[in-house]
Amino acid sequence: MSVKDLELTRKEIDQVDQQLVALLEKRMQLVNDVAAYKKATGKPILDTSREEIVLNKVASRVQNEAFEETLVNTFADIMKNSRNYQAKQLADD
Length: 93
Known about the structure:
- By secondary structure, the protein is mainly α.
- The chain has 3 helices and no strands.
- The chain has helices at about 5-40, 50-60, 70-90.
- It is flat and about 55 Å long.
């Protein structure tokens, strides 16, 4: 890969990152709704059965098998950070 190819590839990554940030912000807005529901109903933040379902869906949607483990781990991290955010939201109220 030449330097120019690397620069072009990095520009494409930047564009994808911009889309990911917008989608993750939208996801976090929905996490706010989940936190409010859990607070109102007294449900615990961690729902292992739901997380297992989400991770299984992620794995089934990955088209390139070489990326499956990494993408499942990425979503596991997203959910971990979402739980941490929910905990902060519930503690602040």
